[in-house]
Every structure is written in C-alpha cells, then in structure tokens.
Amino acid sequence: MSSLEARVFDLADYGRVFPVEQGQSAPVGTIVEEMHAPADLIRTLYLDGEPVALAGITEMWPGVGRVWVWLEDAARGHVLSLTRIVKRELIPAAFEAGFMRLEADIAVDDTHAINWIEVLGFHHEATLKHRGHHGEGNQYLYVRFADGLS
C-alpha cells in the first residue's frame, strides 16, 4: 500500500529532482526559486517518500498572489488529497499572510484544471488573449478573494 503525506516545503527536499514537462525534470529548489514563493506558502505531496506534487502561492505584488501547481504523473491519482491540502491549508495560510486576492491562469482547453480551480472556490474573471507560451493560446483568469466575494 502506498504511503501519502503532505507537508510544508522543506529545504531538505531542495535538491530532489522533480519532473516538470514531458521527458524533462528539474530540482525542486529550481522550481521553488523560479516561482519566488516563500517556503511557508508551498506544500509538497509525497508518495512513498518521493515528492509527486508541489503547490504554492507566489506574491505578484502586495496583497495579490498567484496560485501554481506542479504534478508528476503519479500524483494524478491523488488529486483529492492535493485538493484538500490546498483548500484547507494553503489558501487559508495565504489569506492569513495578508493576501486579499489570489489568481490562477488556466489554459482555456484544460478542462481538468478548470474544474479543479472551481472546486477550490475560484471564479472566472477574464479571458486573457495570447497568454500561453510564446503568445500561443488563450487562458482564463480565475480569482478568489479573502472576503469570499467574487
């Protein structure tokens, strides 16, 4: 039986390698540095002691944060656990840290991500034209506010 646990990002995991795209991987620390997220606003999901998902919130400017998630294929069978962690721990921690607005950009054709972000209580605010990699594709901007208003 697999062992699943989640915890706040730990510097001991900094050098672990984590898949980031098809056939490519990067050390967890590189991902965290690129996202510019404080360790207390990152959660790591471990399956049998290995990191399989990272979720975090990066400050865009004071009071506004961007939600991000990295999933390894092995984590896809544990989305419910990841959802609980983000909804019960990460989002409340962001609001307690002073964020008033959280945002997430979702590709318009990524129905799984759209469904997931809506389960987390985010609402569609806008469609961002040519927002994908190299200006290709459109994205939806989803938001959630500290006061619960949409």
Labels describing this entry:
150 residues; alpha+beta; seven-stranded mixed β-sheet
- What is the string of helix and strand elements? EEEHEEEHEHEE
With strands numbered from the N-terminus, the spatial order across the biggest sheet is 1-4-5-6-7-9-8
Please count the helical segments.
3
Largest sheet: number of strands, sense, barrel closure: 7 strands, mixed
Low-confidence stretches: none
Q: What is the number of strand segments? A: 9
Rg computed from alpha carbons, rounded to a whole number of angstroms: 15 Å
Shape: globular
Protein structure class: alpha+beta
Question: Average pLDDT across residues?
Answer: 78
| Terminal-residue CA separation | 41 Å
Helix share bin: 10-25%
Which percent range describes the beta-strand content? 35-45%
Question: How are the elements arranged and paired?
Answer:
Elements: E1 4-8, E2 17-21, E3 24-27, H1 28-35, E4 42-47, E5 50-61, E6 64-71, H2 79-96, E7 101-107, H3 111-119, E8 123-128, E9 139-145
Parallel strand pairs: 6-7
Antiparallel strand pairs: 1-4, 2-3, 4-5, 5-6, 7-9, 8-9
Give a structural overview:
- The protein is of the alpha+beta class and 150 residues long.
- Helix content is 23%, strand content 40%.
- It contains three helices and nine strands.
- The strands form two sheets. The chain has a seven-stranded mixed β-sheet with strand order 1-4-5-6-7-9-8, with helices on one face.
- The relative contact order is 0.14.
